[in-house]
Amino acid sequence: MSTIAPEFRLSRFIASLTDIIFWVLLIFSLVGLPIVFIVLFYIKLPVINGQLMTPYLAMTWMADPSRSIPIIKSFMHTTIFRVAVFPGFGFAALLAAATIYVERKFLAKIQLRVGPLYCGKIEGILQLMGDGFKLMSKEIIIPAKADKPIFWIGPVLFVGTAGAFVSLIPVAPGWVVANPSVGLLAVFATIGFFPIIAVLSAWSANSKWTFIGGLRALHQMIAFEIPLILSLLGIVILSGTLNLSQIVQSQEHYWWITFMPLSAVVFFITIIAELERIPFDLPEAESEIVAGWLTEFSGMMYGLIQLGTYLKLYAFAGLFTVLFLGGWQGPSIWPPFPQEIITQGITIGPVTAKFPGLPLFDQEMLNGTLWFVIKTVGVILLILLPRGVFPRVRIDMILHTGWYKLIGLAFINIFIALGLLYAGVLGPGGLLH
Amino acid sequence: MHRFLYSPIGLLATLVGEAASSFSPVLLLFLFAVVATGPTLILSRMIAPRRTPSPVKFLQMESGQVPKGEGRTHFMMQYYSFVLMFVVFDVMSIFLYAWGSSILNLPKTATLPIIAFLAIMFAAFAFALYQAGRKNIW
Fold first, then answer.
1. pLDDT tens per residue, chain A (433 residues)?
2. Chain-chain contact of B44 with A156 (C-beta, under 8 angstroms)
3. Which residues of chain B neighbour A311 with C-beta distances below 8 Å?
4. Which ipTM value was assigned to this complex?
5. Residue B19 lies in a domain
6. Of the candidates A79, A80, A178, which has its C-beta nearest B23's C-beta?
7. What is the extent of the structural domain holding B101?
8. CB–CB contact A299 B86 (8 Å)
9. N or C: which end of chain B has fewer CB within 10 A?
């Protein structure tokens, strides 16, 4: 328990606070505001509803809620909104945080424990926030002989790369951060960075445990990358595209898992291996090599690695949904909006201000997002399940599984896809379309 | 299935910048994640206690023992054969995508050379795996 320092004086505390406020105001008005105006001079201001949006107009709109909806709507179609909020970082981080909480409760139920219970009164729902603050307030200890720049940058690069992976996952029709025509290859390219980061941070820490863990991570990710790539070739053969959104559109009638269950099983196993989860968690096997390549990370650095890991988990589950489970496709269960909402807006509150321009999202997008989230959460739960059930396997067994069995199955799957195509079951002019 | 998926994709000339700009949001999200999470390290450094600098605290973890020698040592690299195989077959599997994504526009006879290619590569693959299984030579 921390106590107030003995030399604490309230008057000095208040004086220091007013001091800080004075300096912030002074610097803001003398430096900050001129910078804002200089920047505004060079920025090309957008035209919304036929009006040039000057800062004064923007503030006028903000003061009147019914006028601010066009601003919000135009903001929602910018790249920065997609990157920061909806299909991008905010959405993924929200799902990742939910995953951490669900994983802890889920594992606890499997193992007849209670899991987080006290923090936040209701089933420990604030445990994650508490853990975040705890990690934030812990000291970051860096080993004396570590390669400091690389050691510092490792966790940040890990989160960044996981974010780059998230950006390629389409969530709803038209709602994807990056939509390159070779999206699947971009996914492979992004996945390829993770072992490099693991090995770099393992090598930079100058510790034996991290070194062994890094080498294990390298071996494991190498062994499972080729089955991962080959198992998806069947989908590309049958859908004829590498774009992830078009792959989802090609599953309007049948999900690919119905034709290629073998490929789905191989891909699922490689997902678990790439995520370093039990039964393939050799790189961070805590009972053998302390924490593997994460041994020397302390405090918030470890927290960032965990955040990156769960972002990666969401992205892999989303990729499985997109490739095998039809992505956003599903029956339209979102109720249509009443016509008067679209034309006249809704009335809110005692003042009865009308909000024309609502709803912000259309029905198709909400329905797609709902189905995507339902399927992705199902896949995430399936990925979490082995942790409570299976033991860890040895490294030679892992390599044997990856190189001998999974590659063989993926190879067979290519011929299944070719057979479906040339037997006239799928493809142009096929039986099913 | 859909007609637009199977429309013949010719070698349309596109500007290099156009193709590259479709990847720029990936880089943007990478930068956003770095900018959004990197400052937590600085914040943590500011609010976390940093006291009692003793040399023992900054030693690397070695299960309670006094660390001996360097962490970055020469290491007996096991399973080296798999690393060698990865270099070849990872590239091969990416090349297969060039064929797989355009197979609907190719005549059926064009599949035969690819089958031959697969046969050659996977025969070599099986031979390499057989050699990798002979542990006394690696």
1. 455 566 778 888 899 899 999 999 999 999 988 888 888 778 777 777 677 777 777 777 767 666 667 777 777 888 888 888 888 888 998 999 999 999 999 889 888 988 888 887 788 888 888 888 888 888 888 888 888 899 989 899 999 999 999 999 999 888 888 888 888 999 999 998 998 898 888 888 888 888 888 888 888 888 888 899 999 998 998 888 888 998 998 888 888 888 889 999 999 999 999 888 888 888 787 777 888 888 888 888 898 999 999 999 999 999 999 999 988 888 888 777 777 766 666 666 665 566 666 677 778 888 889 999 999 999 999 999 888 888 888 887 888 888 888 988 988 998 898 888 888 777 776 666 5
2. no
3. 33
4. 0.81
5. yes
6. A178
7. 4-50+76-137
8. no
9. C
* Strand partners for A48: A51
In chain B, whose CA is at the least distance from the CA of A208?
B71
Given an 8 Å threshold on Cβ–Cβ distance, is A304 in contact with B45? no
Residue type, B102: S
The tally of domains found in chain B comes to 1
Angle at A327 between CA A379 and CA A253, to 5 degrees: 120
Q: Which helix (H) or strand (E) holds A213?
A: helix A208-231
Domain assignment present for B15: yes
Structure-block tokens of residue A8? 């604490």
| Contact across the interface for A430 and B1, Cβ inside 8 Å | yes
d(CA B41, CA A285): 26
Cα–Cα distance, A159 to A305 (Å, whole number): 7
Residues of A in contact with B41 (CB under 8 A): 140, 152, 155-156, 300-301, 304
Nearest to B101 among A84, A236, A411 (CB): A236
